[in-house]
From TrEMBL, chain A:
GO biological process: mitochondrial translation
GO MF: small ribosomal subunit rRNA binding; structural constituent of ribosome
InterPro entries (UniProt xref): Ribosomal_bS18 (IPR001648), Ribosomal_bS18_sf (IPR036870)
TM helices/strands, residue ranges: none
Identification of the protein by name: 28S ribosomal protein S18c, mitochondrial
Pfam families: Ribosomal_S18 (PF01084)
Family: Belongs to the bacterial ribosomal protein bS18 family.
Keywords recorded for this protein, A-Z: Ribonucleoprotein, Ribosomal protein
Automatic annotation (TrEMBL), chain B:
GO cellular component: mitochondrial small ribosomal subunit
Family that this chain belongs to: Belongs to the bacterial ribosomal protein bS6 family.
CDD domains documented for this protein: bS6_mito
Single GO biological process annotation from the record: translation
Keyword vocabulary terms for this entry: Ribonucleoprotein, Ribosomal protein
Any one Gene Ontology molecular-function term assigned to this protein's record: structural constituent of ribosome
Signal peptide: none
Residues spanning the membrane: none
Name of the featured protein: Small ribosomal subunit protein bS6m
Length: 157, 147
């Protein structure tokens, strides 16, 4: 063992733990273990250096700065409540070819809003405000809120 | 007494006729012990689909919305009375409800299936079901025959 160590180049010898002199102790900070120097401050300069070092330590209980904003559906975002009399709004969620209500994977609404929307569309159709089998011609060129050809999940249509 | 809303589609009529029809529909609510809160005229336009009522097909209609307060027991009678009215093509009574507030759950729903809570719950439930396993009843903890 000794012979092999001698044969090793100097850099490699440093890596082997028992060969290295350490003047550090283990401290816990912010839940994790951190190596910290235990050299006693001898002068004012040393103390200042220590203080400066403490400033550079990780901050405890800090919020994750990289956390993403929660995604919201378009109706929740703008706080729109679908109403059966508002045919222009409801028509935006209906196929112009078949009058079928697009599913959640196409409209990108949350489950509660989609349920509410479908309920209002059924009410509107039944009360004679909205057609069943097509989109009202006046609303066909309205701006598109989503692309039916690019659903979140693949579908069979 | 709860709030209700009746959506009416009336056949196309001259103005005095329309006024008398509206007065009739309003009186029907008053006679049942109700109060009208609001009357809205949504205009006369082409219907989205042909509607046949009282023996004739309608392609045009005038839209009106009445918001009213009424005892729930008289609602059925009101609807029936409107049904008998020749000038009313279609009527629907809806309860007016204040929209309940909820948190948007879209960020949960667009996660991959393995991270969604409802999927995790389904997987947990499927594990719980005891599947039938054949018992040899040989008193041995191993199978003595070739499997």
């Amino acid at each position: 063992m000794y012979v092999t160590l001698l044969l090793l180049p100097r850099r490699l010898q440093c890596i082997i733990p028992h060969m290295r002199e350490t003047s550090r102790s283990l401290a816990t900070l912010g839940g994790g273990e951190v190596w910290r120097s235990t050299v006693e401050p001898q002068s004012e300069l040393d103390e200042e250096i220590q203080k400066a070092r403490m400033k550079d330590m990780p901050v405890e209980d800090m919020k994750n700065p990289f956390e993403r904003e929660k995604a919201q559906c378009i109706l929740c975002q703008y706080k729109i409540v679908p109403d059966y009399k508002n045919v222009k709004l409801l028509s935006q969620f209906v196929s112009p070819y078949t009058g079928q209500i697009y599913g959640r994977h196409i409209t990108r609404l949350c489950a509660a809003q989609q349920a509410r929307l479908e309920k209002e569309i059924f009410k509107s159709q039944s009360a004679g405000f909205m057609p069943y089998y097509f989109k009202d011609v006046a609303y066909v060129k309205d701006p598109k809120l989503f692309d039916p050809d690019r659903p979140i999940r693949p579908h069979r249509f | 007494m709860p709030n209700y809303e009746v959506a009416l589609v009336l056949r196309t009529m001259s103005r005095p006729e329309l006024i008398s029809t509206l007065r009739r529909t309003a009186d029907a609510i008053f006679n049942k012990g109700g109060i009208i809160r609001k009357v809205e005229n949504l205009g006369t336009r082409n219907l989205p689909y042909k509607m046949s009522a009282h023996g004739s097909v309608h392609k045009q209609g005038s839209y009106f919305v009445f918001q009213f307060i009424c005892p729930p027991s008289s609602l059925h009678n009101l609807e029936e009375e409107y049904g008998r009215d020749v000038d009313i093509v279609r009527r629907r009574i809806f309860k007016m409800e204040t929209p309940e507030e909820f948190e948007c759950t879209l960020h949960e729903e667009i996660k991959p299936p393995a991270y969604r809570k409802d999927v995790q719950k389904m997987i947990e439930e499927s594990k719980k079901i005891d599947k039938y396993k054949f018992k040899y009843n040989s008193g041995l903890d191993y199978c003595p025959f070739q499997k």
